[in-house]
Write a structure and sequence with these properties.
mainly alpha; Serine Threonine Protein Phosphatase 5, Tetratricopeptide repeat; two-stranded antiparallel sheet; 21 helices; 6 strands
């Protein structure tokens, strides 16, 4: 299966590229071929799904933006942007224009991936192998679910139960664009509540359809891990706890003894889902990628994201191995500056979600609910913080603040910063958690092309 993934990873294939461009929701066909007629058998559908994984690995997706932009936007007390890219500087400064390139390409790629998933779901009858049909269906629901989730977190306000039914979210897209006629459909934005309902429905279906193990592709527990994130973002702590517990109790994932192993080795037992990269195929080859922007090493990296000099000392105990292995001081022209050591190689895989997050989520939820489902908060915290892994000791009776501090220490620079600040209703610098500047603008070309049916966000 690994060879199959690498065979198709270089392109989304004609099956997907035939249905992606720049009209409404950025899914107008580039060619006149009807996409539905191009999908004929199991191999075609497998190629389409592999194309979907390729989209997830783009620099506009998990290859860079979904992992880096949340840290830039919430970076006031953790990092500074030192690079020359105006689009990233605007994100860091919370001063994006409606033509911001990161806002545009993230929107475009996400709906491209959603369309790929919708094409697969619309053509399941072409698959002859029953088990493979269930897998493809599950993978398509998984991709569609996580991409709607990322979109609503960037382009809409934080989920608040009291206002989610009226807050404007993003466009829910559940039917494929097969041809020119489909491409001219104009759909308005749905509410935040409607989007979250769709996300949960898709990821729940994925969890029920996917196998427990699926090589380097999404599995049942990948879907549960993302469900845990979704529920936590909503503040539904019981469901976040239970989804995290399902992943933990599967027994398939364990924290590595070394905190650096998950970033320096591929597909370790700690990683629940990661973007597959090679020397030949990685986001860095297109002047994108996590190592490109984070690393400050000979021949590797632009050092555009500089860690605040006092962060390692302020956030970590002196003996904490995460401090010594995840942060380093630059040399040469960058001597004295601090950088994040999680992203050091263009060809490294990019962990998107790791088992320590599940332990931290279950610990937080149990503490908030005063329950001990699966384990006590102390037991879960000790799986992340212990003498072997971090060279530190977890509190014997951790408070909620203890757990949240460990979550920050463990997950910094992995794409959760601004999302955690929003759900916890904490500011970043002078910006409150619900400030309009912490929401991406809808790409102006999208507003113009739909004559305002897709409305712009407040403040833009």
């Amino acid at each position: 299966m690994k060879q199959t993934i690498l065979k198709y990873i270089f392109a989304v294939t004609v099956l997907s590229s035939a249905v992606s461009c720049s009209k409404y929701l950025e899914v107008t066909p580039k060619q006149s071929i009807d996409a539905a007629t191009a999908l004929e058998n199991d191999e075609d559908l497998n190629a389409l799904i592999i194309g979907g994984y390729s989209i997830l690995g783009r620099g506009s997706m998990y290859g860079t933006n979904f992992l880096m932009l949340p840290e830039l936007m919430g970076g006031d007390d953790i990092c500074t942007w030192r690079g020359t890219f105006t689009s990233f500087r605007e994100v860091y400064n919370k001063r994006m224009a409606t033509i911001n390139e990161e806002a545009r390409r993230t929107w475009v790629s996400a709906y491209d991936g959603i369309n790929t998933a919708n094409l697969a779901l619309a053509n399941l009858d072409k698959i002859k192998d029953a088990d493979f049909k269930l897998q493809v269906e599950g993978e398509a629901y998984f991709m569609r679910g996580i991409l709607h989730f990322e979109l609503v977190r960037y382009y809409a306000k934080q989920y608040v139960a009291a206002t989610a039914a009226t807050d404007i979210g993003i466009v829910i897209k559940t039917s494929p664009t097969n041809n020119e006629e489909d491409a001219f459909q104009i759909l308005p934005r749905n509410t935040v509540a409607q989007v979250y309902t769709q996300i949960i429905n898709d990821l729940t279906k994925a969890a029920n359809l996917l196998p427990e193990e699926n090589d380097f592709r999404a599995s049942k527990y990948t879907a549960y891990a993302f469900l845990s994130r979704v529920y936590l973002q909503q503040g539904d702590y019981a469901k976040a706890r239970d989804a995290a517990s399902a992943v933990i109790e599967s027994g398939l994932y364990v924290p590595n003894a070394s905190v650096s192993a998950v970033f320096s080795n591929k597909n370790t037992k700690e990683s629940i889902f990661e973007i597959q990269q090679t020397d030949q195929n990685n986001a860095g080859t297109a002047n994108d990628g996590m190592a490109t922007f984070y690393a400050s090493l000979p021949g590797i990296g632009r050092a555009d994201v500089r860690v605040n000099a006092d962060l390692p000392d302020d956030f970590y105990e002196a003996s904490d191995l995460r401090k010594s292995e995840w942060y380093y001081i630059g040399t040469g022209a960058r001597a004295g500056n601090t950088y994040c050591g999680k992203w050091k190689s263009f060809s490294q895989n990019l962990p998107v979600i790791r088992i320590p997050e599940m332990y931290l989520t279950r610990a937080e939820a149990n503490r908030r609910l005063n329950t001990n489902i699966g384990a006590t908060p102390a037991q879960d915290l000790a799986m992340v913080v212990n003498a072997v892994r971090t060279n530190t000791t977890a509190p014997s009776n951790p408070t909620l603040d203890d757990i949240l501090k460990e979550r920050t220490r463990e997950l910094l620079f992995e794409g959760l910063r601004i999302h955690d600040l929003k759900r916890l209703r904490l500011p970043t610098g002078d910006y409150e958690w619900n400030d309009n500047s912490l929401v991406f603008p809808i790409p102006q070309r999208e507003v113009d092309a739909t004559k305002g049916v897709i409305s712009q966000n407040p403040g833009y």
